[in-house]
UniProtKB/TrEMBL annotation:
Catalyzes the reductive methylation of 2'-deoxyuridine-5'-monophosphate (dUMP) to 2'-deoxythymidine-5'-monophosphate (dTMP) while utilizing 5,10-methylenetetrahydrofolate (mTHF) as the methyl donor and reductant in the reaction, yielding dihydrofolate (DHF) as a by-product. This enzymatic reaction provides an intracellular de novo source of dTMP, an essential precursor for DNA biosynthesis. Belongs to the thymidylate synthase family. Bacterial-type ThyA subfamily. Homodimer. The keyword Transferase applies. It is found in: Cytoplasm. Its main location: cytoplasm. The gene is thyA. Its EC number is 2.1.1.45. This is Thymidylate synthase. InterPro entries: Thymidate_synth/dCMP_Mease, Thymidate_synth/dCMP_Mease_dom, Thymidate_synth/dCMP_Mease_sf, Thymidylate_synthase, Thymidylate_synthase_AS. (6R)-5,10-methylene-5,6,7,8-tetrahydrofolate binds at residues 221, 315. Residues 4-316 form the Thymidylate synthase/dCMP hydroxymethylase domain. It comes from the Bacteria. GO terms for biological process: dTMP biosynthetic process; dTTP biosynthetic process; methylation. It comes from Fructilactobacillus cliffordii.
Length: 316
């Protein structure tokens, strides 16, 4: 069963990982170097042992594919998964005059009064991003994150490279190439973005009419982030396969620092008690060909049966 790949990862890190500090101050159980393989012919690898909101996954991927780096598009689609990083830029700016929001990620987990104020401030921030063009331009942009690196990589001579279009063209014209690679890790930019890319590089492989993809992810939040990453890259592989006249093969997920945050241990343990349902199926609008033409309603999940949601705080 597809989902056992993920559940085995969670079990393995719980049993074999080591305590490790991290940038957020939350603390993790960490293991370095792990690989999962998902055969996309068996179904779409969206977890069923907890509810995973596919609408957030597809709107985020479409945001990347647009080359967009401003959270306004995400907010317009009721997607809040990047809010905290933009909000952090706002509350650390000279313009911000509100209550002290230092370490809001950690403080909101232990102080109910602070959490209520934090949520109030973040809601105000999101509404202003939606309503105020100038404010959105100044505080909604996350810098040269995935969308920028994928669609307009900056070269030393001032040119830009559309890596996604280039790799699609290569798959169509030279499918045996060993250079079907897209990189989000630009050493010159990693210190100037809201969050340096966690999923850093991916490579495609064509064989027997199938398109496979391997992702190298430097840092993987097993409870919250990795389920999104699995589904997002399975979707990306399926979209590109369709455009190139191929069928989806495997998604191979290689993790560097695979970790469970200390405040997610209980949630992971609960998830591991649940039996998976059969994998759902992916539906793509047959009238759309180019991956750049898809809208939210052109991508759907069918027959998705799942256990209830398990909440967990994002480490910022």
């Amino acid at each position: 069963m597809l989902e056992e790949q993920y559940l085995n990862l969670a079990r393995f890190v719980l049993e074999n990982g080591q305590p490790k500090g991290d940038r957020t101050g939350t603390g993790t159980i960490s293991y370095f170097g792990y690989q999962m393989r998902f055969n996309l012919a068996e179904g779409f690898p969206l977890l069923t042992t907890k509810s995973v909101p596919f609408r957030l996954i597809k709107s985020e991927l479409l945001w990347f594919l647009r080359g967009d780096t401003n959270i306004r598009y995400l907010l317009q689609n009721n997607n809040h998964i990047w809010d905290e990083w933009a909000f952090k830029n706002w509350v650390e700016s000279d313009e911000y005059q509100g209550p002290d929001m230092a370490d809001f990620g950690l403080r909101s987990q232990t102080d109910p009064e602070f959490k209520a104020e934090y949520l109030k401030q973040k809601e105000w921030f999101c509404q202003r991003i939606l309503a105020d063009d100038d404010f959105a331009a100044r505080y909604g942009d996350l810098g040269l994150v995935y969308g920028s690196q994928w669609r307009s990589w900056q070269t030393a001579d001032g040119q830009t490279v559309d890596q996604i279009q280039k790799v699609i063209d290569q798959i169509k014209t030279n499918p045996d190439s060993r250079r079907l690679i897209v990189s989000a890790w630009n050493p010159g930019d990693v210190d100037d973005v809201a969050l340096p890319p966690c999923h850093t590089l991916f490579q495609f492989y064509v064989n027997d009419g199938k398109l496979s993809c391997q992702l190298y992810q430097r840092s993987g939040d097993i409870f919250l982030g990795v389920p999104f990453n699995i589904a997002s890259y399975a979707l990306l592989t399926s979209l590109i396969a369709k455009e190139c006249g191929l069928v989806p093969g495997e998604f191979i997920h290689t993790l560097g620092d695979a970790h469970i945050y200390q405040n997610h241990v209980g949630q992971i343990q609960e998830q591991l008690t649940r039996a998976p349902y059969p994998a759902p199926q992916l539906w793509l609008n047959p009238e759309k060909q180019s991956i750049f033409d898809y809208d939210i309603d052109d991508i759907k999940i069918e027959n998705y049966h799942h256990h209830p949601r398990i909440k967990g705080a994002v480490a910022v």
